[in-house]
Amino acid sequence: MGDILRLVARRLGLGVVTLFVVSILIFFAVELLPGDIAEAVLGQSATQETVAAMREQLGLDRPAPVRYVEWLSGAVQGDFGVSLVSGERVSAAIGPRFRNTLFLAAYAAVIAVPLAIILGIIVALLRNTVFDRVANVLTLTSISSPEFFLGYILILYLSVKTSMFPAIASLSHGMSFGDLLYRSFLPALTLVLVVTAHMMRMTRAAIINLLASPYIEMARLKGVPPWKVIVRHALPNAWAPIINVVALNLAYLITGVVLVEVVFVYPGVGQLLVDAVSKRDFPVVQACCLIFAATFILLNLAADVGSILTNPRLRHPK
Amino acid sequence: MTKKYHQNMLDKIAEEARRGRISRRDFMHYSMAAGVTATTATGLWTKEAAAQPKKGGNFRWGLHDGNTSDTHDPGTYVTRQMIFLAHTHRSYLTMINGDGSLGPDLADSWSASDDASEWTFELTKNATFHSGKKLTADDVIASLNHHRGDKTTSAAKALLTDVTDITKDGDYTVKVALKGGNADFPWLMTDYHMAICPANDDGTIDWKSGDGTGPYKIDSGEFGVQWKLSRHEGWHREGAYFDTVEILVLNDPNARQTALVTGDVHSVSLVELKTMALLQRDKNIVIDNVPSAAAITMPMFCDTAPFDNVDVRNAMKLAMNRDEIIEKITFGAATKANDFHLSPAQPYWPDDIPQREYDPDQAKSLLKKAGAEGLKVNLSTADSVYAGAVDMAVLYAEHAKAAGITVNVVREPNDGYYSDVWLVKPFTLVSWGARPTPDVMFTLAYKDDAAWNESHWKNPRFNELLLQAKGELDDTLRAEMYREMCMLMRDDGGTIIPFFNNFVYAHRSNVGVPDQLAASWECDGARAASRWWFNS
Description:
The complex is a heterodimer of chains A (318) and B (536). Chain A is mainly α and 318 residues long. In chain A, 78% of the residues lie in helices and 0% in strands. In chain A, 36% of the residues are buried. With 536 residues, chain B is of the alpha+beta class.
């Protein structure tokens, strides 16, 4: 166990370094974009005087490295500054939206992960049958079509034609949990369709890969029923690749859903990030990107720890 | 006729109209015969006869164009979310009525000095902020000063550069002194930036709290997502029939349309033109297709060859088939323009100027006269200018071929179009938002020394008239001046104006709307929340 704790500590340390590098990259990427916040906010009606006045008020007339160091010294103390456009605290602007994003990701994951793994096991069991083919074709079709298209299809059939579910999420404060689940069902279902195929195929492939191993042959010769061969003997050895794919998909559920947010008018972080980039609102962009980077770092770490814990050979290296 | 007789007769006419026995036209006719003026009769029709607004209900309103980075600062108002919200929770000094006339909002009345260089606004004494504070002259002065001075970051600074001083005379009178005469000043007060906010003690305004004197007060909300508002009891004007209003930001065209079709919202601020015809088949939906003053222009630099020759410019204007462009590019949702930048939705529009039609033969002969046969020009455009801008340019190039003109369409990058292409390249395609009066529009883009004189057009007579008309308080004389200016733009100017784009929005059929919808913004001049109601 000590090894794992050491590994986690080392990885977290490296993660902090990664975040620091990301923050530098993001800052200068925003700087490189043509135009600045004053021009973006004032738009077509900007005059030289109003742009200059706004730059002065926001402190944009100082050199970029100075501004970066100022932001960094605040950030290491947990203060991510205020949004340049609205003057609102970044934490207040992102907080509720990040909760929404996490809720949607969790909602989709709770459905998608068990579904994908169970489906994966079943199709491995029934490989090369009609069921296997149909499941593969359906999931591959859903992963191959763009998310917004899937969203529109779901809206057409589940909302416009049958009015079973609302087409737009329109969440509001003080909604009951049941309402929340009902109103965000379509976006969650879209995400489920998008991520299921990847995880299911990986489960299937990992298990089938092991079925040629001698110990599986042995189990079969002993007369173990096929489902037991897979669940008891093949699956434990297949966890490592499956966990990795699950982690990647979970990260996607948090960071890659801006299109789904737009289609269902779901107030998540993605839309906030897009708006902040178009307005060159650096503190908000920075905070969103750091959250995304941290998500990837933590989920990758979790995947590695998970793989180690499920594999005695990695738990006790020679 | 005695006053009583009048009233009896009007009541009878109104009763008939209510039962649907006479049309609006007849109603106007009879009312006017009964000695009522046209404006009053229109008011009576909407108030008494046809429309009987009912109070109550929760109005859900889906808007396009809203960002999470929007704010309550009137100086940076730019998206529909900000502008429509402003017209719902804040007030202005004046407002544009449904019939396009100027009406009172916070100001009960206004008057000018003889040379129109000093304006006096008498404020209503009934207006209160949602916080309970009474509105006084101080709030108005601070709100206007928000757009003035060296430190201001307001996008509306240019509108108020002529203002030299704003003072109060008692708590309910505001006096504005101008550098020169400006007969349109009360119209400028309808500009969406001029929202009135509560004043702080130091003369700045408190815009952050979202307090206002508008028909609805904000209960909760988040920019880029949604707003919940409830009626401000005791609002100083008539209307505000809904109990509560919900504004939803629906940037995605499909989300907006689905929400309208499924009844999730009662109105949307923009309908995609491509699907307009399909939406029209739904019996529960009414499409509002309202001519606006927003325009597409194609400026040619009048000081650059070949456009320095007026015959070439007119040949370019004649070489455009506007009808086909309106039909194919805008799906009919546009009003044909006549190469002068004044739309039927604006005051002083001259209705007697002959429409310029597609005439490749005459264009050819003009080119021959100018010695410019086989003319080749580059037309710069980008997709971001207008949905279909590039297609429109290509279509125009086809039309121009018949006149012997080769138009080479240059597709420019969307990013930075207005800084690197517009005002830089000699022949471009531009989209203009609506401005309230011809004076504002002409001063902005056609005056000889205007920074945005996009066609480099310098016509001495035009500029002389522009100055004269600005200070002229006699409406008939002004209308004549604007007519002459329009003729000059049409026949000498350097701007092709293909069309004015209509506002195309929609409401569900259970929503009642007035007879005439204001043309200043989508959704009845952005005031749907206070002007519309539920039928049942």
